[in-house]
Amino acid sequence: MIAFLGMGLLGSNFTKALIKKGEKVQVWNRTASRAKALESVGAKAFDNITDAVKDVDVIHIVVKDDAAVNEVLAAAEPGMKPGATIIDHTTTSAEGAVERTKAWKAKGFTYLHAPVFMGPQNALESTGVMLASGDQNVIAKVEPALAKMTGKFINLGPQEGKAAGMKLIGNLFLISLTGGLTDMLSLAKAHDVSFDDVKGLFDNWNPGAMVQARLQRITSGDYTNPSWELNMARKDAGLMMKKASQAGAPLNVIPSVAAEMDKWIEKGFGNSDWTVIASDVVNGKK
């Protein structure tokens, strides 16, 4: 028997997938109707959270944030079976994950943070990526079951909280990507280029394939032998901002990047590779 706490888009689809795999799942949600809706696919819903976790060996939870995880687990604790394992799929702070691991261990429970790079459809189809880090004995014990819930299970090693950090790092990329794409579409409108034409560009040009090489260039710390000089990149950023401003479609991301470019040009790095703007991060300077 498994308990699942939090019947949002991920939790509800995780539950449906587990049931399809033959698992018996008890569910709870603060809005009880969301849990009740899962009874139609075979889940057993409870209004009282302590009843939902009673006699259950493994408790999964996916809610909003650190505060919600702490609040829900505190409410569930009186009903928990001694020695139960808690698997937390919530995106949280690394500090929160470390603190919960320690606190629940002191109470005689096992807590493992296992955040995911998944959308609702991934949870339903058991695709996407699930991360975990911490006690390797714990991970070895639960990995077979967790691997069935995802397309790829990644064990990041013994460092507590590393999975939480990696999840936020990945999400930062996704947020930055969307911000950049939004600027790109604004510039397309400024040039009277249709969104279909923009999408057509990416049918023939895949900048995503450059990510690994760009990371290698940035983290190498070598910004000589430029493939794109900072001065030239800054010139292009200026053209972008000017055109967007003229069309009444101001950009959000590029102005901040341009301001950082200006700082490095003022330091005398205009002829360096434009990735020099990451130099302080790579070299540990403030």
SSE diagram, text form:
Layout: E1 2-5, H1 9-20, E2 25-28, H2 32-36, E3 44-45, H3 49-53, E4 58-61, H4 66-76, E5 85-88, H5 94-106, E6 110-113, E7 116-117, H6 120-125, E8 129-132, H7 136-147, E9 152-155, H8 162-190, H9 195-204, H10 211-220, H11 230-246, H12 254-266, H13 279-283
Parallel strand pairs: 1-2, 1-4, 2-3, 4-5, 5-6, 8-9
Antiparallel strand pairs: 7-8
Domain 6-phosphogluconate dehydrogenase NADP-binding: 2-154
Keywords: Oxidoreductase
InterPro entries: 6PGDH_NADP-bd (IPR006115), HIBADH-related (IPR015815), HIBADH-related_NP60_sf (IPR051265)
Keywords:
6-stranded parallel beta sheet, 286 residues, elongated, alpha/beta
Short description:
Keywords: Oxidoreductase. The protein has 286 residues and is an alpha/beta fold. It contains 13 helices and nine strands.
Question: How would you explain this protein's 3D organization?
Answer:
This protein is an alpha/beta fold and 286 residues long. It has 13 helices and 9 strands. The chain has helices spanning 9-20, 32-36, 49-53, 66-76, 94-106, 120-125, 136-147, 162-190, 195-204, 211-220, 230-246, 254-266, 279-283, and strands at 2-5, 25-28, 44-45, 58-61, 85-88, 110-113, 116-117, 129-132, 152-155. The strands form 2 sheets. The chain has a 6-stranded parallel beta sheet with strand order 3-2-1-4-5-6. Strands 7-8-9 form a 3-stranded mixed beta sheet, sandwiched between helices. The longest helix is centred in the middle third of the chain and has 29 residues, at 162-190.
